[in-house]
Design brief:
2 helices; Alpha-Beta Plaits; four-stranded antiparallel β-sheet; alpha+beta; single chain; 96 residues
């Protein structure tokens, strides 16, 4: 299993319950694919550097997890399909 870090931005125009539900959905995708979430941080609402899909603010989340390469690809695919996620980035962390 590899170590990964994912940062994603959720639409700020949604209710706070739906924002948390979207973040929980991403976390559940990792668990369903036999990965393990090591840490999940909510960084809060911030102004975007430029508008994305007519949104000017977004809720930022950072998640560190362990998963296989196939699980990372599937998570990337599902995050791309989710309309509530404005942007996401998954980075593989180096072994220490």
């Amino acid at each position: 299993m590899n170590k990964y870090e994912m940062m994603f931005i959720v639409k700020a125009t949604m209710e706070s319950d739906e924002v948390k539900k979207t973040a929980a959905t991403i976390k559940n995708v990792v668990n369903d694919l036999k990965g393990k979430v090591a840490d999940m941080k909510e960084l809060g609402e911030k102004k975007l550097a430029y508008p994305i899909k007519k949104e000017i603010n977004g809720y930022y989340f950072v998640m560190q997890f362990n998963a296989s390469k196939e699980a990372e690809r599937e998570l990337n695919r599902k995050a791309s399909l989710d309309e509530n996620i404005l942007r996401h980035l998954i980075v593989r962390l180096d072994e220490e």
